[in-house]
Design a protein that fits this description.
Elements: H1 7-10, E1 29-31, E2 66-82, E3 91-99, E4 106-107, E5 117-118, E6 127-147, E7 156-163, E8 168-172, E9 176-180, E10 190-199, E11 204-210, E12 216-222, E13 225-231, E14 241-244, E15 252-256, E16 266-273, E17 276-281, E18 284-289, E19 308-316, E20 319-320, H2 321-326, E21 331-333, E22 336-337, E23 348-350, E24 356-360, E25 368-375, E26 381-387, E27 394-400, E28 403-410, E29 413-420, E30 430-437, E31 440-445, E32 449-454, E33 464-467, E34 488-495, E35 498-499, H3 502-506, E36 512-514, E37 516-518, E38 537-540, E39 545-548, E40 554-555, E41 561-562, H4 568-572, E42 579-583, E43 594-600, E44 604-608, E45 616-619, E46 627-630, H5 637-646, E47 649-659, E48 674-676, E49 682-683, H6 697-701, E50 721-727, E51 737-740, E52 749-754, E53 757-760, E54 768-771, E55 777-780, E56 789-796, E57 802-808, E58 813-820, E59 823-829, E60 835-840, E61 851-857, E62 861-866, E63 872-875, E64 890-893, E65 903-910, E66 913-914, H7 917-921, E67 927-929, H8 935-938, E68 947-951, E69 954-958, E70 964-965, E71 971-972, E72 974-978, ...
Antiparallel strand pairs: 1-2, 2-6, 2-7, 3-4, 3-5, 3-6, 8-19, 8-22, 9-14, 9-21, 10-16, 10-19, 11-12, 11-14, 12-13, 13-15, 16-17, 17-18, 19-20, 23-34, 23-37, 24-33, 24-36, 25-30, 25-34, 26-27, 26-33, 27-28, 28-29, 30-31, 31-32, 34-35, 38-39, 40-41, 42-43, 43-44, 44-53, 45-52, 46-51, 47-50, ...
Length: about 1250
């Protein structure tokens, strides 16, 4: 029995490598040229001194090569090189090529894109490379790239490996093998199918299998890609067939590989292990779920197209199928031979802008026929050009927008312009043919798509035809290519009917060329496997690839980094208010972003809805013992798990309303109702009780309706009762299923409600550590970011420099550091030498404020961003090393000789995973967990004089001294008033007044401030809608009036008024800013009274103020501020505890916003910037809302007329007893208690009702 052997299976560990070259005859060596007979390639054996001591070519240039024929297919595991003995000739870098035929060479690549090997630095030392992946080949070729600049190319070499034996079968596209396994069903938990293949055509069926239960599995090569298809079938079958290279009818499951029609061997493995299938092509693997594919019967073959090529070492569960075919134990259908028929196509690669091929035209016929095949990724490029005879013009055949286009230029005019084909940049081989006969010109692509035109002049090439490009000489004698050069491969070039011998071209016997790779196609599929992450779509050109990240939620060159924040907590600290936001819990990790409602209050709540959050009623149902309710959430299981584990606290309301319907059947009975959490485990405790207690909240609090039971509903009362509470044990959330049991008795009624899942806090966002010594550091396991690495964190420090983190390898490393107070450096090495990305800031970063750093490195580029400063992006070197290989621990801080970090680091994430700095800091000297002091960074989010209050994890805004409320003191309190007023007595030392209003009423009184001594200040609109400020600040002087220049302000629009008196100056701002000098020497006297909209004071009043007071005010007032007092805010938010008197109808409204808004305005979806992107109200709802608004308007208008009649008074007002004061522990007091404030409440203060 013959089979493949791996060298590591037959060579003992630690044994010397087996040399393969030293015993070969001289005839096994070939070269492009030789300097002399003593420099023959046969002397290029390692450590030999024969001849001139090695091989040297006649000319030292990049077109030289040394070739070795190993006489049979051999496994090569290592290569060693040496310079020419006793000389200054050696090679410093080279390429390694391999082939089974001596033609159609393929380049060995060490690391996907790395092809060049480093050579020698002298003539005698030996440099050995162990290949990462072994090569199976008969012919090996070395191409020198660089050599000693003071010498020439000189080479001796050895290759190591072992013999390789295999069983091969060749298929002609119509034949196949039929293999029948044991008819007994397979009891093995594992099935394994492995093989190698080499294809002569880009499409065909390799394997078709039928397994248990009628399932079919088919392996198909389609346009150079392998597809694994699976289709469910029908059972009741008794035997199993394996078809090699036939077709069946199927559904596509997964694809792998690309350009697999390159006439080289490729490896396939399909492994089933406990229901999972690992599908491997060469070095790339995908995993999927499939049932068994052994043990059942098959269907017949199909005529679509079988495999054309060779299969090698086909092993199914250790059975050698080809060996059994040789022994007639497997059915052979059609013409199958047991040797591999090799193709002899010789391709050529145009790899650079200087590449071209010039061929002579010596045909004397009156017709023209030129054809070739090409493959490329580029949409544009010159395929062919030639000058017409007798200087009649020039013909250009080129790619434009992935179509072939032919033009004939003559005397600056385009005489012919035709196109053919489309989508020709797909990397597949395409044929193009140009034929001219008797004035008829035909351009055909792939022998199907053709364009035809006629010419009135002969189209005959001159002396030469240029392919791929043409030389641009300085003297202008060469052609001038107005199009892009071609980058790709060509083969089967025919001039008339004669095939061009490219080997003779390579030997300089025919034509001329520049910068071509002969006898190989160097095309590389940079999108297989794709480096585009998170569903980004990969497109490519000859030299690079591009990722389209549209609609993925990720950004960057490889769609690696999330554009969304990881939690509502993070959005809150960007200043965002309540709304819908996309949240990406693990950043660049695999969990997808999810649209979540963020309720920004004192905490940032994440609200995850499900399909039934309403109260659901259940009635008696005979024959039904149980009602099951399933809850499907807006987030999937993986997202929910991440949200809950990352949150500080989660809860979910669970309510049960009952009438003769028992709940948990306490104290000792089996529960009638239970629920299922995240893990699938049933739970029998209710909201508000401890896990596992089989109780309700009332049982825990010992206040159930019936003390003998632990739930109100277990009392089985004939009246309605309920058990409600929240489930807050995170490991049990969310509630997936609710089973309600006791609903089948006569008279039983019940209702349940499962609220949305709500979570607040972000354990990752505030996870911090404080480094108090430069020598202190935290260590973590090695960072694995081989192809993509993103690192983000926040820091604050007073130090001028220091290393944030670093991870080292043997040669590779990655480091981020603060190099100066205004510069952050991201540096790394993946084998191409140290690489640095620097960001310089215009402001110092050692200011003890939080600063954000985000660094990313991928196969295309490296980037660094610091706060809002412009980021820096640097491209990675082309065709360089791409794998970052680290092996030491990751150090936060530094353990090397670099200067350590002093300060705080917070929310450190590597590839979306948060490092637990606090836990590690608890056991590390010189490092403390946590880091206080957030207001220096986030205090600016508190608006409108809100005060930032420090918390251990974050901050809060105290809006007590602001007329605004809300998370950031950003929400203005707005009120709609119909003839209402609010006021309070105060003692003043100065005035700072502001308010906003919206009304259509003129004249109207907006605000009135008066003292016991009849000194007052009034803000009013006159009959023309102009703003008047009327004030009398000294009892012995007449009232004065300031009138703004703004025209009618009673126009239903929102206006802002600000008045400030300092010393003898009063500033009034209404639409425009003005300053009025006042001859004042005294401030307002004590016992000042503040009144909004209607005056309520006793005694004599200014006649105009009294008249306007009798009219009342209908409209909107908002964000009213009198010194540090916010009377409107106090009246609306704390009507029962604040020292503010309200008389008349006063209702909270959104009328104070700059534009009218929907009552559902909070239910909007925000993009990253926080702007609404989705309206939550449908057109039908808007129509209904409009009708309701009209009805409400009519009702309010009637109430306004009634209020105006009832409250119109020309007399003075009556006083009332004061209300109580607001408690000190109120979270937002609208009155400032600071003793240094301008406003001081006197001990004898009195408050008055209207």
């Amino acid at each position: 029995t013959t089979s493949s052997w791996a060298c590591d299976e037959i060579v003992p560990l630690n044994a010397s490598l087996i040399p393969l070259v030293s015993n070969l005859p001289q005839s096994a060596f070939k070269s492009s040229s030789q300097l002399s007979n003593s420099h023959d390639p046969g002397y290029a054996k390692l450590n030999r001194r024969d001849g001139a001591g090695g091989w040297s070519p006649l000319d030292s240039n990049k077109y030289q090569w040394l070739e070795i024929n190993l006489e049979e297919r051999t496994e090569i595991t290592a290569v060693a090189t040496q310079g020419r003995y006793g000389s200054s000739d050696w090679v410093t870098s080279y390429l390694l090529m391999f082939s089974d035929t001596g033609h159609n060479w393929r380049q060995y690549r060490q690391e996907d894109s790395i092809g060049a090997f480093s050579g020698n630095t002298n003539a005698d030392s030996v440099v050995t490379y162990k290949l990462q992946q072994p090569v199976f080949t008969q012919y090996l070729r070395v191409l020198p790239l660089d050599w000693n600049p003071n010498g020439r190319v000189g080479l001796r070499l050895e290759v190591y490996g072992c013999q390789y034996k295999s069983d091969v079968a060749s298929f002609d596209g119509a034949s196949y093998l039929l293999f029948r396994s044991d008819p007994a069903p397979s009891l093995s938990a594992k099935d394994l199918l492995t093989m190698n293949f080499k294809s002569l055509h880009h499409s065909g069926i390799l394997v078709h299998m039928e397994g248990q239960h009628g399932h079919t599995l088919t392996l198909e090569l389609l346009k150079g890609k392998l597809f694994l298809h699976f289709r469910k079938g029908t059972p009741n079958v008794t035997s199993m067939h394996v078809y090699l290279s036939i077709y069946g009818d199927f559904h596509t499951t997964v694809s792998l590989g690309s350009l697999l029609d390159d006439q080289h061997w490729h490896h396939i493995s399909i492994e089933r292990l406990r229901g999972h299938v690992n599908f491997t092509v060469d070095k790339n693997t995908q995993r999927l779920q499939l049932p068994d594919f052994g043990g059942v019967s098959a269907v017949g073959a199909h005529s679509r197209g079988n495999f054309h090529g060779c299969l090698e070492n086909v092993l199914y569960n250790a059975v050698n199928v080809i060996e059994q075919a040789k022994e007639k134990q497997v059915s052979v259908m059609g013409n199958i031979t047991f040797i591999c028929s090799e193709a002899v196509d010789v391709p050529v690669t145009f790899a650079s802008p200087e590449s071209f091929l010039r061929l002579p035209w010596a045909v004397s016929r009156d017709s023209v026929s030129v054809s070739l095949q090409f493959r490329t990724w580029n949409k544009v490029g010159l395929l062919m050009t030639f000058d017409l005879q007798h200087q009649a013009g020039a013909l250009w055949l080129y790619l434009s927008e992935a179509k072939t286009r032919l033009q004939i230029h003559k005397a600056g005019r385009v005489m012919v312009d035709i196109t053919a084909g489309s989508g020709l940049n797909d990397g597949q081989w395409h044929s193009v043919e140009l034929s001219v006969r008797r004035g008829r010109l035909v351009l055909a692509v792939d022998k199907a798509d053709a364009s035809t035109t006629t010419t009135s002049f002969p189209v005959m090439p001159g002396h030469h035809i240029f392919l791929g490009g043409c030389p641009n000489t300085e003297d202008g004698s060469g052609c001038r290519n107005p199009f892009n050069v071609f980058q790709g491969c060509m083969r089967l070039i025919h001039l008339e009917s004669n095939l061009v011998d490219l080997i003779k071209v390579q030997q300089m016997l025919v034509g001329n060329f520049s910068d071509l790779q002969m006898d190989m196609c160097g095309i590389v599929d940079r999108c297989s496997p794709s480096h585009c992450e998170h569903g980004g779509k990969c497109t490519q050109s000859w030299s690079t690839f591009h990722c389209n990240c549209s609609n993925t939620g990720y950004s960057g060159a490889t769609c690696h980094s999330s554009i969304y924040e990881p939690s509502c907590e993070a959005y809150k600290h960007r200043g965002n208010t309540s709304g819908y936001y996309y949240v990406d819990m693990d950043g660049s990790g695999p969990i997808k972003p999810q649209l979540i409602y963020c309720n920004m209050s004192d905490k940032a709540w994440m609200v995850i809805q499900h399909n039934n959050t309403e109260l659901t009623k259940l009635r008696t149902s005979s024959g039904t013992n149980q009602h099951l309710a399933y809850f499907n959430y807006s987030a999937d299981t993986e997202q929910l798990g991440a949200i809950i584990s990352q949150a500080e606290h989660c809860e979910q309301e669970l309510s049960y309303h009952c009438k003769k319907s028992r709940l948990l059947n306490t104290p000792e009975g089996a529960p009638f109702t239970w629920w299922v959490g995240r893990s699938g485990e049933a739970h029998t405790y209710w909201g508000g009780a401890r896990p596992g207690s089989q109780q309700c909240a009332c049982g825990l609090q010992e206040d159930c309706v019936d003390p003998e039971h632990f739930c109100n509903c277990d009392g089985d009362l004939d009246s309605w009762a309920n058990d409600s509470g929240v489930i807050s044990h995170k490991e049990h959330l969310p509630i997936r299923l609710l089973a309600v049991g006791d609903i089948n008795r006569p008279g039983s009624e019940a209702a349940y409600r499962v609220g949305p899942l709500q979570c607040y806090g972000d354990n990752d966002f505030w996870n911090a550590a404080y480094f108090n010594k430069e020598t202190s550091y935290l260590h973590f396991p090695t960072f694995h970011g081989e192809l993509s690495a993103d690192i983000s964190f926040l820091f604050k420090t007073s130090s001028s420099s220091g290393v944030f983190l670093e991870n080292l390898g043997i040669k590779d490393f990655i480091r981020i550091e603060l190099s100066s107070p205004t510069e952050v450096v991201f540096s790394f090495d993946v084998g191409n030498g140290p690489f640095e990305v620097r960001v310089e800031t215009t402001e110092p970063l050692n200011d003890e404020r939080w600063h954000r750093v985000k660094a990313e490195r991928n196969v295309k580029e490296a980037s660094l961003h610091v706060d809002h400063f412009p980021g820096v992006v640097q491209k990675a070197p082309a065709d360089g090393h791409i794998h970052l290989q680290l092996n030491s621990q990751l150090f936060v801080g530094t353990a090397s000789r670099q200067k350590g970090f002093l300060g705080c680091i917070r929310s450190l994430k590597l590839n979306g995973k948060t490092l637990d700095l606090e836990e590690r800091a608890k056991i590390t000297p010189g490092v403390q967990p946590g880091c206080p002091g957030h207001c220096s960074s986030y205090g600016g989010l508190c608006q409108n004089r809100g005060r930032c209050v420090e918390k251990y994890n974050g901050f809060a805004c105290d809006c007590g001294s602001s007329p605004y409320s809300g998370t950031f003191c950003h929400k203005g309190e707005n009120a709609s008033a119909q003839s209402s007023s609010i006021y309070s007595d105060l003692t003043l030392k100065g005035e700072n007044i502001s308010l906003s209003f919206r009304t259509s009423q003129a004249p109207a009184l907006l605000l009135y401030v008066s003292s016991y001594y009849r000194e007052y200040l009034g803000i009013l609109l006159n009959r023309n809608g102009q703003l008047d400020v009327k004030y009398k600040l000294q009892n012995n002087r007449d009232a004065e009036v300031f009138r703004s220049s703004a025209r009618n302000l009673a126009n239903g629009q929102l206006h802002r008024v600000s008045i400030r008196r300092v010393s003898e100056t009063v500033d009034v701002l209404s639409i425009i800013s003005l300053s009025i000098p006042l001859p004042l020497s005294l401030s307002l006297r004590p016992s000042l009274r503040l009144s909004l909209s209607i005056c309520t004071e006793s005694g004599e009043m200014d006649p105009e103020i009294a008249r306007l007071n009798s009219l009342g005010f209908t409209g909107c007032l908002s964000v009213v501020q009198f010194n540090s007092i916010a009377p409107l805010k106090a009246a609306l938010l704390y009507p029962d505890t604040s020292p503010v008197i309200v008389t008349g109808p006063l209702t909270e409204s959104n009328c104070g916003s700059s534009s009218s808004s929907s009552p559902y305005a909070a239910e909007t979806t925000h993009s990253l910037s926080g702007e609404p992107v989705v309206n939550a109200i449908s057109s039908d709802s808007a129509l209904i809302g409009g009708v309701i608004a009209v009805v409400i308007f009519v009702i309010l208008a009637a109430l306004a007329v009634m209020a105006r009649f009832l409250y119109r008074r020309k007399e003075t007002c009556q006083t009332q007893q004061p209300k109580g004061t607001k408690p000190e522990d109120s979270p937002e007091t609208p009155f400032n208690t600071d003793p240094h404030s301008q406003s001081i409440i006197s001990d004898t203060q009195k408050e008055y009702f209207i």
